[in-house]
Every structure is written in C-alpha cells, then in structure tokens.
Amino acid sequence: MHDLIREMGRGIVVEESLGNPECQSGLWDAKEIWVVLESNKDLENLKRLDLTGSKNLIELPDFSRALKHEDVDLRGCTSLRDVHPSILSLQNLVTLLLDGCNSLQRLESSVHLGSLSNLGIWGCKNVKKFSVTSEKMEVLHLDEMDIVELSSSIGQLNKLRNLYITNCSQLKNLPNQLCSLKSLYTSHF
Question: Where residue 51 sits, what CATH number does that domain have?
C-alpha cells in the first residue's frame, strides 16, 4: 500500500512538470537525473533525490546548484564510493540516507551543516572515517560500521535524540562529549 501511494505521488510530480524533469521538485529516475545535471539546467526546484537501490551508481555529480535540496536517499547504492562534497554543503539538506552503501569509505564534512536532522549510514562496513555535524541533528544511525572512533564533535549535536551505534565491532571508545547531550533520549550501543 505504501509503495502504491509513493508511486501515485511521484506520478503527480511528473505530471505537474509536463514531462520536463528540470521543473520537478523530485527526481527518482537515474536517467532523468543525469539529463538534468548534464544539461546544466537550474536545479532550484529540486528538493528530493531518491536513487534507492541504484547498485551501479559509483559516484555523484556536483549538486551545488540544487539550492532547495532537502532529501537525498541513496540507500542500497552498493557501488557508491564517495559522496560528492557539494551534497554535504547543501544548506537545506534535512535527510541523508546512505544505509547499505557498502563501498562507501568515508563520510566527512568540513562544513557544519545547518539543517541536517536525520543521517542514516548503517551497514556501511567500509566507512572508516566519519565526521558530520549539524546543529539540528536529531537521528543518527551508525549501526554495523567499522569506524574506530567517534569524533568529539558529536558533543556539538545538542538536539540529538536518537543515536544508534550497535554492532560497531571496531569502535574502541566513546567520546566523553556524549555525556553533554541533554536531548539524547534513545541510545543503542
């Protein structure tokens, strides 16, 4: 039932754009995404990118023109090696889902993200380096990863309510800064 509703919603978005993918608020089809990005069209309308299960996707192009981008769903993109830095600098990014991206090796941002509230990267066994912060982060899924340590910057996630770091067999220590998270409601270690 959920899939049917999702497909109906996607159909409405496509219909409203009159077949012009660059006018859509969401892009789901990989071919349409490449057409829009390669044509250097303005990406102001794009708010959601869903490439779930794109097993052959190796890299992402520059998304710095997607000024209103809010959601990026790359779950199950098993060949994805890197997340383009432009995605981690999108000012309106709220949700980034990378669950099951087995080839991903790092997820680091030198920019403090202002709006990211939900980050999921569980099951990304090859991620050794992780450092992403956001003043609005509420949910952080790091389950089943081989990270060795969590950055002390995790203490800056003042709104973090849910932290999941189960089955991280390489994780040696938890940073003391976790104790300063006043909003933390659920934590699974």
Answer: 3.80.10.10
